[in-house]
Amino acid sequence: MSPRSPRRRSSPFTSGLTLILLGVLFLLINLNYLDWSDLAAYFLLGLGLILLVEGLSLKSTPGAQRSPMGKILAGIILIIIGAGNIFGHFTWWPLILIVIGLYLLLSPGNRVKSG
């Protein structure tokens, strides 16, 4: 059997946390702390947090094969969508400007090369 391919798209970390998130959400629904209508919003919020944490942990790992900015940006977008559905769209619209600004600041093309 060959060693693990470095081109895998999902990690056991992400898969495990996603299953835990779903289990916690279904448990909260069964205990009547959440409604079924809120499931999608909380799932997107939780998945966004998982992707953000994974992207930030990959960013701090030396020798990473690929830039984790895609996971970080996807996590931020999912957090905004989930939170927007939970708390109301009109309250959260300025976060879109913040996300775009963070992306522009953190994108690899905008880094100053030293030396």
Q: Strand pairing plus helix content: what structural class?
A: mainly alpha
Main beta sheet strand tally, sense and closure: none
The H-and-E topology, N to C, reads as HHHHH
Percent of residues in helical segments? 55-70%
Topology, number of strands: 0
Unreliable stretches: none
Mean pLDDT: 79
Task: Note the topology.
Blueprint: H1 12-30, H2 39-59, H3 69-87, H4 89-92, H5 94-106
Describe this structure in words.
The protein is an all-alpha fold. The chain has one domain. 66% of the residues lie in helices and 0% in strands. The protein is built from five helices and no strands. Helix 1 packs antiparallel against helix 2, helix 2 packs antiparallel against helix 3 and helix 3 runs antiparallel to helix 5. The longest helix is centred in the middle third of the chain and has 21 residues. It is flat. The chain starts with 11 loop residues before the first helix and ends in a 9-residue tail after the last helix. The relative contact order is 0.11. The mean pLDDT is 79.
